[in-house]
Queue: 2 jobs
Job 1
Amino acid sequence: MHKITLIPGDGVGPEITEAARRVLEATGVSFTWDIQDAGEDVFRKEGNPLPDRVLESIKKNKVALKGPITTPVGSGFRSVNVLLRQSLDLYCCLRPCKTYKGARSRFDNVDLVIVRENTEDLYAGIEYQKESEGAKTLIEFIGNTTGKRVRQDSGISIKPISVYATERIMRFAFEYARKNKRKKVTAVHKANIMKYSDGLFLETARNVAQKYPDIEFEDKIIDNMCMQLVQKPEIYDMLVLPNLYGDVVSDLAAGLIGGLGLAPGANIGDEFAVFEATHGSAPKYKGLNKINPMAMILSGGLMLRHLGEMEAAVRLDDAIVSVIKEGKIVTYDMKPSPDDPTAASTSEVADAIISRMI
Ligand code: NAD
């Protein structure tokens, strides 16, 4: 029996987490779910979008399955997703992206694992609002120490990248490569421009790579990487990226395999792990029973592997592969046109996957 914290999230979160929960239970693995609400509605009710009870539950159970949570743009509360990753030190965001036969994509040969550093970079949350005391002090400090002029009406976000965090994300990637028989790790950066942050990332990555001579290592500049990914994704295997590039490239990779509806993810630390799809809360689809639950269900598959339930994970994957290959009971995003009248609903897709596991 696995006790799992289940965070339905907001937007389409509740409908896709319910689909994932039903499919996971149908594998025959037994779960008890500790359901913990977080996000927009909780912010309205409790004044905090991520109450302590949610973190306490994950700390107790060690593993969570989480639906997406909306982040208001520009104002309101800070990202619950980022806070969760930082509070639990979930330093690795693991996002496998591979093409499934039958999925509508320009490529049929993508098999990438994206390893995104999850705790620092421009996501560190160190920001100074335009004209705040902090921004004024910083602008003055920069002027005094570098002679460079930052405009007085600037908002400022800080980009810290450390040896500590880069070493552990690189080690994670190489260990994953060894365990999962992957052949090549590519570190992605902009070290030519940001010498002290991305430069340090690259130098540290090279140092760690020396300890893994059995795995091929190379590096690529982020802009070149993006172009190469859309031209020849098949030559890449595992990509390791600082936080912001990792976020952007994860969506790019999702696009290579047929969209966000198929891109699963896991946030992993040394003590805890939170499994969630790459996509967000897609608010315009909330409550319509329309969105693709596969990314969330595949994230559940990653959770099964993390829990050591390998046989159930393989059965779940096989069932999903079979539903995609047949192409009948799939949501609108996997049909030739988004208004295809034969598109299945979220819950119908879950039912179809369940029916193929029996
Ligand atoms: P999004 O990923 O929610 O959706 C963008 C579009 O992609 C949708 O409108 C839809 O057309 C498509 N899409 C996404 N998921 C899909 C699925 N499962 N099936 C079919 N189509 C799908 O991105 P957004 O609109 O930029 O973000 C909405 C909110 O989600 C924002 O508040 C954002 O901050 C938040 N967000 C949360 C997480 C998270 O919880 N980890 C991640 C990303 C974004």
Job 2
Amino acid sequence: MDNTDMKQIQWFPGHMAKTRRLIASNLSLVDAVVEIVDARSPLSSRNPEMDHMTKNKPRLVLLNKSDLADERTTQQWINYFRRNDSEALAVDCKSGKGLKSILPTLKNTVLKELMDKRERNGMKGAAVRLMIVGIPNVGKSSLINKLAGSKRAKVEDKPGVTRTKQWVKLDNNTELLDMPGVLWPKFEDQSVAVRLAFTGAISDDILDIETLAMKLLSYLAENYPNSLTERYKIELSEEDTGLDLLEKVGKKRGMMISGGEINTERAAITVLDEFRSGKLGRITLEAPPQKEQ
Ligand code: G4P
């Protein structure tokens, strides 16, 4: 894809500066950061600036939506993060899988030094404060709801009522800031933008939907051919282009327009929807850098 394929995305500098300031001020209040990424695209779904902003804080990376990702690659990603100085866990905030390990991992590993120091200083009971960070749509609200559940204070949902900072007690000595730090995704590299569009983290408008689906089908034909042959009952050939694959899917599903042409737009919507909802199986869109696995 070249630059002309991409529609311009506008960010507002004032809004960005305010967001960064808010995150920085909240960070000063917490002992550790829980960063959520999408297990299907763990690097593409991070904002590298977040790395910089949180560099002085102990951090736990959660590979969320692990129910949709390839298990083997998720394990490689966990190893990658651990090698790069961040403890990491695979979780699924939809079913709650993996969430029980979060607090023990924070206390026994990520915050071990702080916990030991507090114990030595007779401050064992002091609350540990946490904050969740991540780009939109990675599952921050789902995680807060799962962790805090009914303990979450009711916030008035009225225009003009300013939300004050709320700390939710997760256990007798852990408190979570119920306002996550949200940074926009970053996609100077266009393959990153495409991965974010595949998962629905950014709007489909970034590319036309058929181009997006053709790129996804080509990736699947190369990396997960069985997911295509099983779901769509199509035969794959080495020479298939993205368009060939899209037409095969449309034809198999009977998506025709008058004149016997295949409705590739409908086929594209179907492929993207089925990928996003996991109907094509557990698929990861990027592997850790080779030497890091
Ligand atoms: P955010 O606060 O970071 O913006 O994300 P949020 O929790 O709103 O989650 C975004 C979408 O991702 C939601 O789907 C949510 O249900 C889904 N989600 C979160 N965690 C997981 C997970 O571990 N696995 C799967 N499969 N999905 C997850 P939605 O379509 O926007 O809403 P709905 O399906 O909940 O109605």
